[in-house]
User: Fold this.
Amino acid sequence: MTFRIDRRHLLPTQNTGVNKSNNITTDFKKVLDDTLKTNTSIKISGHAQQRMVERGIRLQEQDMNLISNGMDKLEAKGGKESLMLYKDMAFIASVENRTIITAMGNSEIDTVTNIDSAIIIK
Assistant:
């Protein structure tokens, strides 16, 4: 049995068998999970945008879809900070944040540090 306090009196309430606060929590969790599943877009950091302009790197929607699929594969394998090689481009990406951190041409790659994974996107 549950009780509520009204004007300093303890009053019994009917228990309908449904915990409203639990439903709200469950509903919120469901909405959050659905949002996270559908939010597969890729963000490009300001630094990466600047590098892409400097290097003449342009990505079309199809390119972004392939890169997103690559991030999905890296995420499934536990990748966090990754090198992504695509065509004649290379990207360093935060897989967790789904963000491209920097961009360069393949010819500019010399040494890459602070990554835990890499993928060649075909």
About this structure: Residues 43-121 form one domain.
